[in-house]
């Protein structure tokens, strides 16, 4: 139970989750725009490192780990809105040892 309490105390950031529309226009092109499907509390931590640091890219997008409670539909390619920033979901992980949380790996869209 202490793990659940530990997570609850870390969920301090308010985020929105947005999905791209699945509809097509009359010509078959994908509809534009994003639909906000949920607003959640989350813990956000810097996720430094990765390919950008190895390549020494000065203008690499900022990367973060977003931890939140499960029970929402979120997938790679979706967007997270946080503190005026827009983040793209790159990966999602669910650890069976920690069923009370999901962890998203995201990068900032500039």
Describe what you observe in this structure:
With 110 residues, this protein is mostly beta strands. It contains two helices and six strands. It has helices at 2-10, 51-54; strands spanning 13-19, 35-46, 63-68, 79-82, 85-93, 102-108. It has a six-stranded antiparallel β-barrel with strand order 1-2-3-6-5-4. A hairpin with a 2-residue loop joins strand 4 and strand 5. The longest helix has 9 residues, at 2-10. The protein is globular. The protein starts with a helix and ends with a strand.
Uncertain spans: none
Which shape, going by the Cα principal axes? globular
How many beta strands in the DSSP annotation?
A: 6
**C-alpha termini separation:** 39 Å
SS strand fraction: 35-45%
For the biggest β-sheet, the strand order reads 1-2-3-6-5-4
Helix/strand order? HEEHEEEE
Structural class: mainly beta
The DSSP helix count reads 2
Radius of gyration (Å): 16 Å
The percent range for helix content is 10-25%
**Biggest sheet, in brief?**
6 strands, antiparallel, barrel
Mean pLDDT over all positions: 85
What's this, in brief?
By secondary structure, the chain is mainly beta.
Please give a handful of descriptors for the protein shown:
six-stranded antiparallel barrel, 110 residues, mainly beta
Question: SSE layout and pairings?
Answer:
Blueprint: H1 2-10, E1 13-19, E2 35-46, H2 51-54, E3 63-68, E4 79-82, E5 85-93, E6 102-108
Antiparallel strand pairs: 1-2, 1-4, 2-3, 3-6, 4-5, 5-6
């Amino acid at each position: 139970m202490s793990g659940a309490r530990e997570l609850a105390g870390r969920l301090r950031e308010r985020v929105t989750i947005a999905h791209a529309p699945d509809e097509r226009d009359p010509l078959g092109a994908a509809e534009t725009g994003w639909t906000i499907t949920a607003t959640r509390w989350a813990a956000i931590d810097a996720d430094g490192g990765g390919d950008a640091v190895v390549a020494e890219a000065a203008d690499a997008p900022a990367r973060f780990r977003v931890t939140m409670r499960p029970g929402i539909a979120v997938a790679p390619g979706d967007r997270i809105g946080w503190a005026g920033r827009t983040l793209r979901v790159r990966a999602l992980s669910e650890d069976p040892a920690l069923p009370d949380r999901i962890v998203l790996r995201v990068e900032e869209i500039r």
